[in-house]
Amino acid sequence: MSFDWMIKIVSENWPMFLRGAGMTLFISIIGTILGFIIGLIVGIIRTIPMPERGGKRVTLKIINSILGIYIEVFRGTPMIVQAMVIYYGSALLFGIDMNKLNAAILIVSINTGAYMSEIVRGGIISVDKGQFEAAYAIGMTHFQTMINVVLPQAIRNILPAIGNEFVINIKDTSVLNVIAVSELFFQTKSISGINFRYFETFFVASVLYFVMTFTVTRILRYIERKMDGPENYIMYANQMQVETPEDTLRRTQSVNGNNR
Amino acid sequence: MEKIIEVQHLSKSFGNHEVLRDIDFSVNKGEVVSIIGSSGSGKSTLLRCINLLEKPSSGQIIYKGENILDDKHDTRAYRTKLGMVFQQFNLFNNHDVLGNCIVGQMKVLKRSKEEAEKVAMKYLKVVGMDKYINAKPKQLSGGQKQRVAIARALSMEPDVMLFDEPTSALDPEMVGEVLKVMKELAESGLTMLVVTHEMGFAREVSDRVVFMDKGVIVEEGTPEQIFNNPTQERTREFLKRTLKI
Ligand SMILES: Nc1ncnc2c1ncn2[C@@H]1O[C@H](COP(=O)(O)OP(=O)(O)O)[C@@H](O)[C@H]1O
Ligand SMILES: [Mg+2]
């Protein structure tokens, strides 16, 4: 009987499940934070206004195209493939034998960074042009404008998309089992490899995944509600998973109500 | 009279659309100059060229004897000398009223927080918004926002204030409170360059009125000359159309 099996599997293997879930959460949190930092830097660089001429223009163009390639490549290939290429590639090509956990964090961060770059860029260009102009008009540099005026608004507006990336990471770290990182999927595979009860064991894992994403989603939505609705929210994510259409509607309605 | 800003042969094109053509005019210290003209005539573009939010295609802008279009000229230092008030207010949404008035002082003029707050409070009192220092822009009415925007510009203690249709985005009942503040500023001797559709303001408050049409200055003179004895047909037509409404 399946249910009895599940109870037996949980009672015998709960430390392994918990360690796996802990590892999954750890990698997703660190990966999302580092990915956000990468995205912030790349997004900021890609929104620097193009100088009209001179060496600076050439340098910026080159940097922009490199960053563009980074984003395209990492968004255009599956993370499971990226994991294999980076982990085995670094060993083969550079002779670096990466610690599995570090490799996992590296892969998730670079991958998340590619998505975050576009999210941040979308957040920046969604801030009203008048905000930039008012800052320039009182003599701020582009950098001062970003730090003091634009980024605080952009980041607040993209919080839902950032939370969304976090939820995606919780689920997608499962692909790291291909480089034998002991996250939840890997642990589940090991447990089922011993007891051969695939359905029951993976059912337990699915419950754990769901509890994690559901809890995170609730917490994030609570945080978003706490912060008052952004002025110029922009829907800019690959797959929205945190915000419901109702939230979006409520948000845009309150904007229209307040803004005129 | 001391010329603060002198615009010489200024032209501006967007692509091959020439928006300003051979503009010549100047603003003297302590003077209030109004720019009038129908919409699309290039008034905003002229103001935006003066503080370099737009780059002029040709011509010169002389500020206190220096050519600010020179590559070596410090654009940002120059901008702190011009206070800009926008039609759409453009208050910093992430700052409250006081924050809007101190962030520029602290980051650009490097004033201490205490000093910046003192200066900000002084000008918030001038515009009658000192009771709202903790309000966020979205909690204010249009008229209140525009008065804060004026205080933000004044807090930088500029030599000249530029106003780009400061009352055009306001509900009619709020126009008065903003014009009143501007009138008080004018009477205090502040140098002001005001793009406006408020003919009453242009007539009563300004020392000089400039009429623009299709990218050129058609006529300029005292309010008396422009409103009572315009020499150009285009001016007469514009005034007839505008004053009738
Ligand atoms: N950034 C821009 N790009 C292209 N055309 C512009 C731009 N800004 C203004 N224009 C054009 O320049 C003309 C003058 O505009 P503007 O200076 O805003 O007029 P006004 O303020 O007198 O109403 C208009 O025809 C407008 O469409
Ligand atoms: Mg205009």
Automatic annotation (TrEMBL), chain A:
<keyword id="KW-0812">Transmembrane</keyword>
<feature type="transmembrane region" description="Helical">
    <location>
        <begin position="202"/>
        <end position="220"/>
    </location>
</feature>
<comment type="similarity">
    <text>Belongs to the binding-protein-dependent transport system permease family. HisMQ subfamily.</text>
</comment>
<keyword id="KW-0813">Transport</keyword>
<dbReference type="InterPro" id="IPR035906">
    <property type="entry name" value="MetI-like_sf"/>
</dbReference>
<keyword id="KW-0472">Membrane</keyword>
<keyword id="KW-0029">Amino-acid transport</keyword>
<protein>
    <submittedName>
        <fullName>Amino acid ABC transporter membrane protein (PAAT family)</fullName>
    </submittedName>
</protein>
<dbReference type="GO" id="GO:0006865">
    <property type="term" value="P:amino acid transport"/>
</dbReference>
<feature type="transmembrane region" description="Helical">
    <location>
        <begin position="20"/>
        <end position="45"/>
    </location>
</feature>
<keyword id="KW-1133">Transmembrane helix</keyword>
<feature type="domain" description="ABC transmembrane type-1">
    <location>
        <begin position="21"/>
        <end position="220"/>
    </location>
</feature>
<dbReference type="InterPro" id="IPR010065">
    <property type="entry name" value="AA_ABC_transptr_permease_3TM"/>
</dbReference>
<keyword id="KW-1003">Cell membrane</keyword>
<dbReference type="GO" id="GO:0043190">
    <property type="term" value="C:ATP-binding cassette (ABC) transporter complex"/>
</dbReference>
<dbReference type="Pfam" id="PF00528">
    <property type="entry name" value="BPD_transp_1"/>
</dbReference>
<dbReference type="InterPro" id="IPR043429">
    <property type="entry name" value="ArtM/GltK/GlnP/TcyL/YhdX-like"/>
</dbReference>
<feature type="transmembrane region" description="Helical">
    <location>
        <begin position="66"/>
        <end position="88"/>
    </location>
</feature>
<dbReference type="InterPro" id="IPR000515">
    <property type="entry name" value="MetI-like"/>
</dbReference>
<dbReference type="GO" id="GO:0022857">
    <property type="term" value="F:transmembrane transporter activity"/>
</dbReference>
TrEMBL record, chain B:
<feature type="domain" description="ABC transporter">
    <location>
        <begin position="5"/>
        <end position="239"/>
    </location>
</feature>
<dbReference type="InterPro" id="IPR050086">
    <property type="entry name" value="MetN_ABC_transporter-like"/>
</dbReference>
<keyword id="KW-0813">Transport</keyword>
<dbReference type="InterPro" id="IPR027417">
    <property type="entry name" value="P-loop_NTPase"/>
</dbReference>
<dbReference type="GO" id="GO:0015424">
    <property type="term" value="F:ABC-type amino acid transporter activity"/>
</dbReference>
<protein>
    <submittedName>
        <fullName>Amino acid ABC transporter ATP-binding protein (PAAT family)</fullName>
    </submittedName>
</protein>
<dbReference type="Pfam" id="PF00005">
    <property type="entry name" value="ABC_tran"/>
</dbReference>
<dbReference type="InterPro" id="IPR003593">
    <property type="entry name" value="AAA+_ATPase"/>
</dbReference>
<dbReference type="InterPro" id="IPR003439">
    <property type="entry name" value="ABC_transporter-like_ATP-bd"/>
</dbReference>
<dbReference type="GO" id="GO:0005886">
    <property type="term" value="C:plasma membrane"/>
</dbReference>
<comment type="similarity">
    <text>Belongs to the ABC transporter superfamily.</text>
</comment>
<keyword id="KW-0472">Membrane</keyword>
<keyword id="KW-0029">Amino-acid transport</keyword>
<dbReference type="GO" id="GO:0016887">
    <property type="term" value="F:ATP hydrolysis activity"/>
</dbReference>
<keyword id="KW-0067">ATP-binding</keyword>
<dbReference type="InterPro" id="IPR030679">
    <property type="entry name" value="ABC_ATPase_HisP-typ"/>
</dbReference>
<dbReference type="GO" id="GO:0005524">
    <property type="term" value="F:ATP binding"/>
</dbReference>
<keyword id="KW-0547">Nucleotide-binding</keyword>
<keyword id="KW-1003">Cell membrane</keyword>
<dbReference type="InterPro" id="IPR017871">
    <property type="entry name" value="ABC_transporter-like_CS"/>
</dbReference>
